[in-house]
Here is the input.
Amino acid sequence: MNKEGLPTTPGPIGVFDSGYGGLTILRQFRQLLPQYDYLYLGDNARTPYGSRSYEIVYEFTLQAVKKLFEMGCHLVILACNTASAKALKSIQENDLPLLDNSRRVLGVIRPTAESIGAITNTRHVGIVATQGTINSESYPLEIHKLFPDIQVTGEACPMWVPLVENNEYDSPGADYFVKKRINNLLRKDPQIDTIILGCTHYPLLLNKILKYTPRNIKIIPQGDYVANSLKKYLKRHTDIELQCTKNGTCRFLTTESPEKFKDSATIFLNTNIEVEKISLE
Ligand code: DGL
Here is the structure.
């Protein structure tokens, strides 16, 4: 233990989301970087975060980061756009120096923004995300830092996370909400040739999204870009890499019912898993 009461021995890479969405990122981590151990935490009891205030998303995310640190993680990925948009900066700048300056917390928005310059031809990009992520303007801000010529248009999709969390992503009800939001986005900017899925839950809605998007428009789920970025990060930061254990395991934690998590996570990951319940309050 260090003086902050955190374990000093190497541990798994922490992956956090408000619910199941982060599993779409974890899946890509495990595919690209199977040698590492992962500890996934879903705050399913308090999902969705998308419509919550800055203060609440920050408070919940900080609780999760602290818990993952206490459980041995030296590196935590916020596999949630809403938490990345609303809490990451404060945690990096204000909390990490107090908690333990040698640990790291990373998000999913920057790696996605970095990838977009090479993908769009028209330089008109659309973002579908939660209300919180759209209101934060994080995507236009990050994209414009790197590619000032790209026009970024956002569309908040408040019903999409509940559809996924409630296993309704393949239902006829999902068609209505997906069509409505894609149409709204393309009406705002008909020159869009690339749509970023700016919420880690949305890859589950990919079939419906493709159904209502013209063929010439590229749909960008984040998993691959975030995983590639993590790979490069671990190569550049050997001090952090040495703190990540490598036995190829994955543990799952949820703040809600483990049985429920297990059923839904099986759909996300296509494999059977063991889940433990924890409390963050
Ligand atoms: N997966 C989270 C994201 O990427 C969902 C947010 C929510 O809980 O509303 O934004």
